[in-house]
Design a protein that fits this description.
The protein has about 230 residues and is an alpha/beta fold. The chain has a domain of about 150 residues: Glutaredoxin (3-Layer(aba) Sandwich), CATH 3.40.30.10. The chain has eight helices and nine strands. Strands 2-1-5-4-3-8-9 form a seven-stranded mixed beta sheet. A two-stranded parallel ribbon has the order 6-7. Strand 1 and strand 2 form a beta hairpin. The chain starts with 19 loop residues before the first strand and ends with a helix. It comes from Sinorhizobium fredii (strain NBRC 101917 / NGR234). InterPro entries: AhpC/TSA, Thioredoxin-like_sf, Thioredoxin_domain. This is Thioredoxin domain-containing protein. GO terms for molecular function: antioxidant activity; oxidoreductase activity.
Length: about 230
């Protein structure tokens, strides 16, 4: 497969490259070129399914599927989880009408310019490196999900236990090489041009472990189809 790379997250006006991936929720391959000339598509690029924050973001994206379809916008969820592991997960945790693809090598993440953040002891060089001291000073406030604001490590541990998620060898392999792969959502018009995006790689890092609100996504979708 051809390798793509971008110097930073794709911005509105940039043309998205064609990426071809193994489909999870159907047979065969999925390519971004499948949508070109047909419909706009919201592409969600996430970490592996071992990430409890990403599992919730994927579920939120799936919940918007019907409303986006009404506006003529398709959705594609991409996870850096090996195909068989991903298929097994969605078999037992089905999300109706979810179109998903596996990208264990993170080809799509690099193509869209999402950095694989390195955790360091104390060096901050956003969005390439982040010191654990900085990470542990963060507080994630997720009302109704977390009992109180927590640092990302404690929040992840809490959510894994709450979900009863059991890590597999595949999960551990993905986590070892891309624990802090930054994620994002990109809305492409029918010509494959980025019209809106929301990424963790925002200049000040304010979007770490966050996802766009449904209203924000739907507002962007309304603009791209006109």
């Amino acid at each position: 497969m051809a390798e793509y790379a971008s110097s930073g997250p794709l911005q509105p006006g940039d043309r998205a490259p064609n990426v071809v991936l193994d489909a999870i929720t159907q047979e065969g391959k999925i390519a971004l070129d499948d949508f070109r000339g047909r419909k706009p598509v919201l592409v969600g690029l996430f970490r592996g399914l071992q990430c409890p924050f990403c599992r919730r973001q994927i579920a939120t994206m799936a919940q918007l599927k019907a409303a986006l379809s009404e506006k003529g916008v398709e959705t594609l969820t991409v996870v850096n989880t090996p195909i068989e592991r991903a298929r097994l997960y969605f078999r037992y945790h089905p999300l109706p009408n979810l179109l998903a693809a596996a990208d264990p090598e993170r080809i799509s993440h690099r193509a869209f310019g999402l950095p694989n953040l390195e955790f360091t002891e104390d060096e901050d060089d956003w969005p390439r490196k982040l010191g654990m001291q900085t990470v542990m000073s963060m507080r994630l406030d997720m009302p109704g999900v977390l009992p109180e604001p927590m640092d990302p490590v404690a929040a992840s541990d809490y959510l894994q236990k709450a979900d009863g998620y059991e890590m597999t060898d595949d999960d551990r392999r993905m986590e070892a090489v891309a624990m802090a792969q930054l994620v994002g959502e990109f809305l492409l018009d029918r010509d494959g041009v980025v019209r809106w995006s929301f990424t963790e790689a925002s200049p000040d890092g304010r979007n770490m472990f966050r996802s766009p609100s449904p209203d924000e996504v739907m507002s962007a979708a309304s603009q791209v189809v006109h």
